[in-house]
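Problem 12. The chain below contains 168 residues. Write out its predicted structure in token notation.
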Amino acid sequence: MNDSLSQALNEQMNFEFYSAHVYLAIAAYCSGESLDGFANFFIVQAEEERFHAMKMYKYLNDRGQRATIVGMGTPNNEYSSILDAFEHAFGHEKEVTKRIYHLSDLALNDREHATMQFLKWFIDEQVEEEAMFDSIINKLKRIDQDSNAFFMLDSEFAGRTFVPPTTA
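Solution.
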């Protein structure tokens, strides 16, 4: 693996850690609004992002590359509504997808087949992530001011858990 691809994977690993930070900030916003189910949703999302980062960490080490951890910026902590928070998260996931595609292009250009195969999992994951956020945003828009439906969605998210994939 050449240095530029290794560096790009390190950057993405750190961006995945930052993503966990973003979702913890959104969870804190939700907790502050007494929306514990939504907070749980984003706490679980943060766990997934840490899992993604550690998957990259392990891959770099398995390939004889050094994983380098760097500092991260301060995520947004204020939102005008739950819909705003989810729209922000959806935009963040779109950025992750763009970055994964860039990594895939680098691996393809370098004919780095092992990394191409490794990144396929992340590409598939991003399809699921974007579809999930899009679906939730559409539900939130339909719910609008229906407090019963909003409460039901908050209750549904309270039961969300993270179970690492066994094929990861």
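Discussion. Residues 113-143 form the longest helix (31 residues). Students who got a different answer should revisit the alignment rule from Section 12.3.
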